[in-house]
Every structure is written in C-alpha cells, then in structure tokens.
Amino acid sequence: MARLKVGVLISGRGSNLQALLDAASDSAFPAEIVLVLSNVPGAAGLERAQNAGVPTATINHRDFQGRQSFDRAVTTALEAAGVEFVCLAGFMRLVTQEFVEHWHNRMINIHPALLPLFPGLDTHQRALDEGCKLHGCTVHFVRHEMDSGPIVGQAAVPVLPGDSENSLAQRVLLAEHRLYPECLRLIASGAATITGDILTLPATPPETLLISNP
Fold first, then answer.
1. What is the pLDDT of residues 55-111, one digit of tens each?
2. Spans in the chain with pLDDT lower than 70
3. From start to end of the chain, where are the E strands?
4. How far from each other are the two terminal CA atoms of the chain, in whole angstroms?
5. Which residues are CB-contacts of 177 (< 8 A; sequence separation ≥ 6)?
6. Residue 190 buriedness (CB in 10 A; 0-12 / 13-18 / 19+)
7. Looking at the whole model, is its pTM more than 0.90?
8. Helices and strands (H and E) in the chain: how many
9. Which residues contact 3 (CB under 8 A, 6 or more apart)?
10. Rounded to 10 degrees, what is the CA torsion of 34, 40, 43, 49?
11. Is 111 one of the annotated active-site residues of the chain?
C-alpha cells in the first residue's frame, strides 16, 4: 500500500514535527512526510526537516497583502510537492475558510488542551487557574472555527500540586509527541475514517489515545 503523502506546516521549533519525522522514518509507518513548510524564515523546525532529508519551503506571510493570497501560495506549494494530507504542528496562522474547505477532511491539528476546554492561547495557565486535575492535548480535524472539528484522539496528564505553567506545559508536550504520530497512523492506515463530520475510530483505541502519564 502506498504511504500517505503528508505536508507539515510549522512556525517555530518543530518539536511535534520531530515526533512525526521520527515516526515516518520507519518504512512501516503508513505516512511519509514529503514537505515541511514554514511561514517564518529560519524557523528551527526547518533544520529538523533538513536533517531528516525532508524537503522544506518557506513562504513568509509578511510578503502577502492578505490571508487569502498567502493561503493560496501555501496550497500551491503543498500540491506541487504531491501532498495529500496536511498536519499543522505549531503553525501560528489562522487559515482562511477557503483553505480549510480546500483541505476538508485532509488536515489535522494538535492543540495543547482537552478540547472543547480551553480553545485558543494560554491553555496551561487557564487550566491551572480553573483548578483542573487533568489537562492534556487533542488532535482534531480542522474546521473554520478555531480549535474545532472532529476529535481523532486525546491524551491526558495529571495536574500536580505545585505545577507552574511551564512544568505543566512540558508534561503536556511529552503527551503531544506520543499522540500526534499515533493519530496520523490511524488516519493514514485507514483505521480511522471520516465522512462529513462523522469520525469512525477502532472499537478499542490504543491507550495513547486515552490517557498518558509521562
């Protein structure tokens, strides 16, 4: 079976990108990363991709008059590389409805909270402020509304006494690194399928999709 050709969009250090690169380095993994694209010149994640032998591209959003023209340029670059499926991994741009519709059910994102709790920014501090006992991360299909869409998987971590925003963020990040490749594997292998907004998962999801306690 041909491996799913994936493009990863990043804006920064690319730690979740690295988790995907590591997973895809195994020829048995059902997806291969064929392009890593950043909107930020010199983003650290680009070097990670280059070290893995994966082609990279930079499209600086500041070079465009608006979101629509930028998003169209991104789509052109992705399709020129043969990308069939898109992973957002720390891509700090709100994409247009046109972009979301073009990649409908072919684009996922990872968010550092247990959606629908805490969409948007500052998720770790908000979890601490609310006194949450569990926090975590979510992989979901992308819809136009921010941090919405059918959920592929979630990983939860405990909020420990004395946690700071930083210590909690680090614990969640470790869970992200386990969750994202597993969710991509489920989709690329056909074990998880989506029609419209209806997502079908295996009857017994892997433990990684339920809870993680790194």
1. 999 999 999 999 999 999 999 999 999 999 999 999 999 999 999 999 999 999 999
2. 205-214
3. 4-10, 31-38, 56-58, 85-88, 107-111, 134-141, 151-158, 193-195, 198-200
4. 33
5. 15, 16, 18, 19
6. exposed
7. yes
8. 6, 9
9. 29, 30, 31, 32, 188
10. 0
11. yes
Compute CA distances 140 → 52, 57, 115, whole Å.
Answer: 26, 25, 9
Q: How far apart are CA 204 and CA 196, in angstroms?
A: 22
- For residues 48 and 14, the answer to whether their CB atoms sit within 8 Å is yes
- Tokens found for residue 83: 């990308």
Q: Are strands 193-195 and 198-200 parallel, antiparallel or unpaired?
A: antiparallel
Query: Tokens representing 78?
Result: 């992705």
**What contacts 33, CB < 8 A, 6 or more positions away?**
6, 7, 8, 20, 21, 24, 49, 52, 54
Residue 55: cis peptide before it, omega within 30 degrees of 0: no
Q: What is d(CA 46, CA 42) in angstroms, rounded to the nearest whole number?
A: 7
Catalytic-role residue among 102, 111, 124, 135:
111
Q: What share of the chain is helix, strand, coil (3-state, %, to 5)?
A: 35, 25, 40
State the amino acid at position 136 in one-letter form.
Answer: G
Q: Which residues contact 214 (CB under 8 A, 6 or more apart)?
A: 157, 171, 174, 175, 178
**Residue type for 91, please?**
F
Amino acid letter for position 117: L
Q: Which amino acid is at 158?
A: P
